[in-house]
Amino acid sequence: SPVASILPTASLREASGSMKFPFHSLSSSASPTFFLERRELGVINVGGPGFIKLDGTNYDMTERDGMYIGLGVKDVVFGSKDSANPAKFYINSSPAHRKFPTVHIPFKNANPNKLGSPKQLNERTIYQYVHPAVCESCQLVMGMTILSEGSVWNTMPCHTHERRMEVYFYFDMEADTRVFHFMGEPTETRHFVMANEQAVISPSWSIHSGVGTSKYTFIWGMCGENKTFGDMDFVNMSDLK
Questions:
Q1: Do both 232 and 157 map to the same domain?
Q2: What percent of the chain has pLDDT over 90?
Q3: Distance from first CA to last CA of the chain, Å, rounded?
């Protein structure tokens, strides 16, 4: 499941003021002739105002707007409206065997779910973008989690899900803020120290949880055998090592 970020700035843009995706030619020996011939794409803008043009149709993308781009779209172009405040497009992509309609997902249309509590320092709202409650997809699921003031833990108590892998993208952090991201088997965990706008990939057998030194937000993306959000194997706190 490829993970990418796109920052269309003046120094990188084409004469049209945009960037065409992908930014390299596919191998002549490769079976697909364009990137989304057998793939689907999820996008969330974490920067300034921008746009995405798909096979000639233009979609405005303000901060925290998302988009699901289905299998079969040939021409994908990303652009910023203000080079001084460029858009930042974060992307997840997975293989797809079925075509679903492309859907523009403004932040206000994402499906919110409140979890956690101030007492456990994990009060947060999960905004589902590419999710059955919002739009159809083949196997990609994607969304954003915003923590409440004073909460620093995400996805704790932690879990695994044997039928899906997951990737976290941490952003909206001050320069000296860090997130300690825990992963690995529940009985043998390890951690990464994450800075602003960094991503970490967790295989299906790994926990994925983090705690921040200050305010942060993160985008999560999953792909695998199902799209059932609640299909999780929770880990008892006493089993963590």
A1: yes
A2: 68
A3: 29
